[in-house]
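User: Good morning. I'm curious how cytidine-5'-monophosphate would be positioned relative to this chain. Could you predict the structure with it bound?
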Amino acid sequence: MQSCTLIAPAKINLYLEIIGDRSDGYHELAMILQSIDLADQIHIQKSSIDSIRVRCNDPQVPIDKSNLAYKAAALMNAKYPEAFIKHGGLNISIKKRIPVSAGLAGGSTDAAAVLLGINLLWELGLSKSELEELGARLGSDIPFCIAGGTAIATGRGEQLAPLPSLDNIHIVLAKYRSLEVSTPWAYKTYRQQFRSTYIQDRESLAARAEAVHSSNMVKGILHKDTKEIVQQLHNDLEKVVLPEFPIVLELRETLTNAGVLGAMMSGSGPSVFAICESKQQAEEVKSHVRKKIPDQELELFVAQSIAHGIQLAP
Ligand code: C5P
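Assistant: Good morning! Here's the predicted structure, ligand included:
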């Protein structure tokens, strides 16, 4: 195989609770993650030149060594140097649809696709769980991007417990194109403001993470009860991002007032998603918001929950 093309879906957070600190500087989280059909396309081609090259159609995306997809290829190169010598370099081409720095795991899903693609091109035979373990070294969201569907994520976000998939959730997704929120900034600011509420002892931390398994959100998912899911939407990072970026709060309010079931920021933002009754309602809400906020900077998408992570393009 000389090349392959993969579809790399975005994710939204239906639930994000910050439970406490970790000794590695990260936070203990309890999250519920959902893949959506808004996706990037990643083409990976073996190259005769002995190097890794990244290209992207979106100038907002860096194509140097700081790109997470580059880092994924570099990690595979470091881990399997014989395969790199045997198969040569890699040209990675990213067709971006997922908004950048949006809290939608756009960079993580591209990196996840690169891990899966190289596994195929170099015939390494790594299992999904081995790839997830490699992915976790690069970013907390990468294991979920590989697994996809609907899942509880604890620890840093890399420990996954799959849930029955929700394939009928219709959303409108909104993001101001050049507004970026740094994830390290969001978590750092949260720590500064809410550290006193963090659970300290290890047993209570583990119990809190465990409790998410029997939460009302999980019950809503098990019963495919969209109204219950919407009632349980929660994201602790809204407490620091919305006051700092009032434009995101306004966007969230515009969506909420458009007659949707519920709206919330995804991850560290600044994208906001709104859950709708149907695809038709999602299309109507998209048009309504476009009229209310005619700013061309505002990107709007209609998307749907899906039951899988990275896949080979058909
Ligand atoms: O793992 P990832 O590189 O995506 O995380 C980005 C940043 O978000 C981390 O450097 C850290 O500042 C913050 N973070 C955190 N706790 C987590 C996940 C991320 O504090 N569980």
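The chain has a mean pLDDT of 97. The two ends are 15 Å apart (CA to CA).
Let me know if you'd like a different ligand tried.
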